[in-house]
Amino acid sequence: MDIAIHSVFLPHDDPDASLAFYRDTLGFEVRDDVGYGGMRWITVGPPGRPGTSIVLYPPAADPGVTDDERRVIAEMMAKGTYAAIVFATEDLDGVFERLRAGDAEIVQEPAEQPYGVRDCAFRDPAGNLVRINELR
């Protein structure tokens, strides 16, 4: 069986801030930017890897989510406990410095973890936890 991850979804509450972060700070390509009903779905991905994408989406777009659930989602996003993603790079220190220069909210500077990886962590503009592992 050959299965690949094509896209993952991360919520956003400010499409322009999320777009600037993923495009300008992380250097991802913008693959699509679709608006509907005052909301935007923005697809980004790493250059040279067209088969892997992140869709930044408005969590309020799901018609099955109640107002109470929307409130809980907003609270969890603000705390950074709603969504997370892990990236990998050969140049962890260089990426970390780029993030620091881009005013990313740093959660953890590069560190050796007891479970065998060296990584760092930060939050995107929506509060999503983003970890970056160093490839060895």
Topology:
Elements: E1 7-11, H1 15-25, E2 29-36, E3 39-45, E4 53-57, H2 67-79, E5 84-89, H3 92-101, E6 105-112, E7 118-123, E8 129-134
Parallel strand pairs: 1-4, 5-8
Antiparallel strand pairs: 2-3, 3-4, 6-7, 7-8
Descriptive tags:
single chain, 8 strands, 136 residues, four-stranded mixed sheet, alpha/beta
Brief overview:
With 136 residues, the chain is of the alpha/beta class. The chain has helices at residues 15-25, 67-79, 92-101; strands at 7-11, 29-36, 39-45, 53-57, 84-89, 105-112, 118-123, 129-134.
Task: Summarize the structure in words.
The mean pLDDT is 93. The chain is 25% helix and 38% strand. β7 (118-123) and β8 (129-134) form a beta hairpin. It contains three helices and eight strands; from the N terminus they run βαβββαβαβββ. It is globular. By secondary structure, the chain is α/β, with parallel strands linked by helices. It has helices at 15-25, 67-79, 92-101; strands at 7-11, 29-36, 39-45, 53-57, 84-89, 105-112, 118-123, 129-134. The longest helix is centred in the middle third of the chain and has 13 residues, at 67-79. A four-stranded mixed beta sheet has the order 1-4-3-2, with helices on one face.
